[in-house]
Give the backbone structure.
Amino acid sequence: MASERSAVVRLVSEQVSSVEELSVLGVVGAGQMGNGIAHVAAAAGYVVHLQDVSAAALDKARATIEGNLARQIKKGALTEAEGFAVMGRIHTSTEVAPLGAAQLVIEAATEARAVKLKIFEGLGRVMAPQALLASNTSSISITDLAAHTDRPEQFMGMHFMNPVPVMKLVELIRGVQTSDTTCAVVTAAAERMGKTTVLASKDVPGFIVNRVLMPYINEAAQALYEGVATREDIDTGMKLGTNVPMGPLTLADFIGLDTCLAIMDVLYHGFRDSKYRASPLLVNLVAAGHLGRKSGRGFYTY
Ligand SMILES: NC(=O)c1ccc[n+]([C@@H]2O[C@H](COP(=O)([O-])OP(=O)(O)OC[C@H]3O[C@@H](n4cnc5c(N)ncnc54)[C@H](O)[C@@H]3O)[C@@H](O)[C@H]2O)c1
């Protein structure tokens, strides 16, 4: 027992303890979110190792980052030399080994618990003992994920918003085990990437943003289902009535209706409270394959 306790103390005292110790970051998963995280991290001056099991995803990520940098250069937000330097700091690989050089690894792979646990197992074999680990999960319990890593005190949620280079927010989530030092270093790293942070200090389903957003979207779907108003009037009502850039049904089509449904289910099962029950309209649209913009049809047709 005493030796177990001292092992934990050693781990905490040896962890990366200031943002100045970070120079190399790892990003696992090169999809929509991973390429954006690699972009903002490299723009902040970090050397980035971006890893994915799919070589095609890595190629696509490089092309996306190059396209986004080219747009910034065209707008005058960046010089060509700066854009070139950002790309030069991003290294891609299908191998996990290069992530061993990172002091902080951000996991942004597919939203499936089993996939993430397998990734953490592989990372445990290559990451330095003092390195920190963060997950970009939208809905999986940080405490649960942390418990399945070799460094639960050095683990936390780092929830970037989509699209990452544009959205200012990073929602940070503390697991039960997260150390104060981990929280401070990861917060400072997000700020160095130009982001404003908010902290969900309790790891509860939906954290802050999705806890509030998804029931709002679901209620809009339910109002449409009940025939309260047309989809256009629900969206215009909320857009002009609450001064948001788009109405809830348009926003849901952007996010993906399958994602909205999955998060409602996480809230429903996590709180075991019927107030989070998904609207039958949302359930049916997903069953029909009408997933929003990405499938060409959701609440609207594209
Ligand atoms: N899309 C969003 O709006 C959004 C917003 C915030 C957070 N998130 C979260 O970010 C994460 C990624 O979402 P996304 O939208 O980028 O997904 P995505 O499907 O675009 O990309 C996921 C990537 O992970 C890769 N991958 C799968 N298994 C892997 C493995 N074992 N090792 C390495 N790479 C692997 C896939 O090849 C794919 O390229 C999820 O946890 C999601 O919940 C998404």
Summary: The chain has two domains: 2-200, 211-289. The pocket of nicotinamide-adenine-dinucleotide is lined by residues 28-34, 51-54, 57, 108-111, 115, 118-119, 136-138, 159-160, 162 (CB under 6 Å). Strands lie at 24-28, 47-51, 90-93, 104-107, 132-135, 155-160, 169-173, 196-200.
